[in-house]
Amino acid sequence: MKKMMLVPVLAMMVLGCQEQAERESIAVLKSPDGRLAMEFTIDGSGKPEYSLKYGEETVVRPSGMGFLLRGVMQASKINYGDPITKTDALPERTFTDGFRVIGTDTTSFDEVWEPVWGEESEIRNHYNELAVRLEKETTGELMTVRFRLYDDGLGFRYEFPGMQKLDYFVIKEEMTEFAMSGDHFSWWIPGDYDTQEYEYTESRLSEIPSLFELGVCGNSSQTPFAMNGVQTSFLMKTDSGLYINVHEAALVDYSCMHLMVDPETFVLRTHLTPDAQGWKGYMQTPCNTPWRTVQVTDSAEKMLASRLILNLNEPCAYDDVSWIHPVKYMGVWWEMIAGSGSWSYTDDFPSVKLGETDYASARPNGRHSANNENVRRYIDFAAANGFDAVLVEGWNIGWEDWSGKLKDYVFDFTTPYPDFDIKALNEYAHSKGIRLIMHHETSSSVRNYERHMEKAYSLMEEYGYDAVKSGYVGDIIPRGEHHYGQWMVNHYLYAVTEAARHHIMVNAHEAVRPTGLCRTYPNLIGNESARGTEYQAFGGTTPKHVTILPFTRLNGGPMDFTPGIFEMDLSTFTGNTSRVNATIANQLGLYVTMYSPLQMAADLPQHYEKFMDAFRFIRDVAVDWSESRYLDAEPGDYVVIARKAKGTGQWFLGGVTDENRRIFDVRLDFLEPGRTYEATIYRDAPDADCYSNPQAYDIFTETVTASDTISVTAVPGGGFAVSFREI
């Protein structure tokens, strides 16, 4: 393999030397600690490029920037009320060269800001900034490229000022490049315009295929399809031990970015999600793109600690955030996912449009989970164990054909099934100190959802619901749009801001992956946007998956992963033959390693009742943190994290491993020195195994101090969890 790769590497070195002679260096920007250096250059053809180094090591070779444009519309040529003709538009053209530099500005910024919720109570936002102002020489059009360099990476975006010759334009493709310095090892999922629900493939850049083969990455489709690059957050590791992560921040009014990988030159090229006509973005100046990000650290633990994505987002948009709060919840959900219950009230297919079907006279199927008795059972168990809320799915009419022929008409989000008494159940929950979480499955009939959104949110406000789980399963209506295109990106944010008017928090499933917008809109309290626990009921997920997600999916914001499954053999309570590939100790560890301010205990109450000693950790563990320590990690292998609860100051420790048995020797120097603690340790039993004996665990206590080390063995698919109580 090394001999095969020698030729392209040498070719890149020679080409780089030739090109370097033709480039004019405009500016060099260094990170606050001086380790990272970004250089902006422009060549003889007016092509802007950037490069990035970590010390003496090249991270990004000189890489191109800019756009291919469909054409531009000049506002001065438009007679409002008259049809726009082709003569009003400039032809399709490049926006990647022919620039001259008309000015540069530099500045530094250093602040400490407090997130409403998070992995720590304070985040430092410290960067040096360079803004390069460019003019297209042939047209006089203006563009600024703004760079921000942090100690843990680089962010840059394109900005277009208003009141200039470039008023409106349509993007055919963004041409941003990330030219890697070698054939790095990588963790990736295929470029898909509508889902991130894949397992990760581990390979060299040169091994990433251009065609997605059936069965790779856990794809459940029945036919192969052309792979549109890889999705971000895209993690790589160099042979020298640097960790590099390419992603984007502040995705607003723009299409989601994928990366096309050149297996010979190792250049990553931006590929935006298209709309129904194949165009990538509709822009009106003044405007800017999301930030393109390159995080660089010399350890896996530092990559987990990076807050670059959050820092590149705008500060909180709300004056009052008192209504936003972390949530630990249970839900009427897993029994339907596993197959023992049903979202629908009847198996009779409604033959007429929504609103004309008489559900009161329909024959109940006897499996409808969102019924009064079952919901009360969840409320009782949640209240008895100190939870905040209970999610109820399948409460509203329309599930009989929610993704089929009547898709344009299903779900009004205000009408419950006959066996769900919304008023009585809400009053019962409040009497127990529990709030109900509303569920809005849109079936991707987005216009239908937007038509009903105000009434739906008003109903929630009336009954005291303060959180909603929304879903976007299926093809987007209007047809031809994609989940990750500009049109849907705008919808997701619209839903969040409209919910804020009603003091409602949003947990969006099947939405676009997070890019740090939860800093600006902290009522965006959770997202799915990845392969979560539900896939354990759809054939299973490999144990390594949960050791990769903290580096990739969680880079842009928390995930509603829905951990806490204790009954691994689904056939014991349903006809489903799937098994959960994890031990109970692993599921406990996830409450620390998979950060979310919205944490679910996903299993059924009757399953927890068999293991109440282990369930104690789920009861005790916090969901909001003042401090996090990333102790030991390697993507695809293991993750060990300690976190300090906000308010109480109590420490919790968690770890998970892949399919390999590992011994973790964890230093407890994160504890307060000079104090003594009782550590309650939840670990895999010696004979435990995620495949054959997943429910075997041990619980014991030790007296420890900050100078101690605890040794814990995790079995394949296993893990551990520890709670510390100061004595």
Quantity of strands, as a count = 39
Q: Which range best describes the helical content: under 10%, 10-25%, 25-40%, 40-55%, 55-70% or over 70%?
A: 10-25%
Structural class: alpha+beta
β-strand percent reads 25-35%
Question: Ends: how far apart?
Answer: 57 Å
Describe the main β-sheet briefly. 10 strands, antiparallel
Q: Identify low-pLDDT runs.
A: 1-21, 212-225
State the CATH class of the largest domain.
Answer: Mainly Beta
Overall shape: it is globular
* Domain module tally: 3
The assigned CATH architecture of the largest domain is Distorted Sandwich
How many distinct helices? 12
If you compute it from the alpha carbons, what radius of gyration comes out, rounded to the nearest whole angstrom? 26 Å
Q: What is the fold-level CATH name, i.e. the topology of the largest domain? A: Beta-galactosidase, Chain A, domain 5
Give the overall pLDDT as a whole number. Answer: 91
Summarize the SSE layout with pairings.
Elements: H1 2-20, E1 24-30, E2 36-42, E3 48-54, E4 57-64, E5 67-73, E6 93-95, E7 99-113, E8 123-136, E9 142-150, E10 153-160, E11 168-174, E12 177-180, E13 185-188, E14 201-204, E15 211-212, E16 225-226, E17 230-231, E18 234-237, E19 243-249, E20 257-261, E21 267-272, E22 281-284, E23 287-288, E24 291-297, H2 300-305, H3 308-311, E25 327-332, H4 334-338, H5 372-384, E26 389-392, H6 422-431, E27 435-441, H7 446-463, E28 467-471, H8 486-501, E29 505-508, E30 524-527, H9 545-548, H10 584-593, E31 598-600, H11 605-608, H12 612-620, E32 625-634, E33 638-645, E34 651-657, E35 662-667, E36 677-684, E37 697-704, E38 709-714, E39 719-726
Parallel strand pairs: 25-26, 25-31, 26-27, 27-28, 28-29, 29-30
Antiparallel strand pairs: 1-2, 2-3, 3-4, 4-12, 5-6, 5-11, 7-8, 8-9, 9-10, 10-23, 10-24, 11-22, 12-21, 13-14, 13-18, 15-16, 17-20, 18-19, 19-24, 20-21, 32-33, 33-34, 34-39, 35-38, 36-37, 36-39
